[in-house]
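Here is one chain, start to finish.
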Amino acid sequence: MLDPESSVHPLVPAGNPTSPAPKNPASGVDTRAILVHLDGLLIGRCHEFLDEPLQLGRGHRSVDVLLEGRIASRRHAVIYRHLEGCHVIDDLGSRNGTWVNNTRIQRPTPLNNGDIVQAGTSCFRFVSGKGSEAIFFRQIQDMLIYDRTTGAHSRGYLDSSLRMELARSRRMGAWLSLLFIDVDRFKEVNSRYGHVAGDRVLSGVCRILRDGLRRSAPLSRFGGDEFVALLPDSTLEAAVTVAQRLRCLITQSAVSTGCSGLILTISVGVASCEPGSLLSSESLLEAGAEALRRAKAAGGNCVEI
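Its structure:
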């Protein structure tokens, strides 16, 4: 295995010898690339990268692409950009190997547009450049994982991410918390100002919530005016602190809605899965929903666990 930062990388042909050679950045061709999940819970999700190495693994904290299944290694493989401009994949000493076009790689191997990469039970397609194929996969990803009204992640994204994060927390012995968030008296907003204004309210609330969360805490629209934020590696106490901060941000922020005199607040239910717990994704969501119901019953604009 070679260090991606090394100045010399011996290359071998990829598994598909008929694939066109990667372009050199000096030619003026865009050298961005994406790695697309072709199966499993994360099907359709794209990982875009250029210069930074992209690590694939089962549960290590430093990985960029989370692999499903126990046959994947914690630090399985890495993709990086070679000095010549092409992207190269290298196995990191994984137990079951890394495959390109059904050929197990033995050393750093260049990736060509359309190559199929297998690591553990996960399968990916490598797409280089910014042509029609890359645009197509990005559009598919947007339809699968984003809510068009608010820009938050979709319910399907939440379901798959929650199962993956629960599996990771069990392997790593880490905490996992979630926030179940509801916009207070949102039905009154729709009744008084109309559904178009209601959509603007949800979009504005979503923007503030996303800005108040760290990058590793994805926000998803659960349905209607309810959102769920996942907080990997966060204890219950830390999650309550985040929830209170978000509640204050919404109260203090002016959401652009076009509705004069409208003051927005949120209620938040917090639930956690501690290390060693066998709690299912459904049970964790229900615990968050029950905490949210208590917050609403208390009058709203508060946080409950």
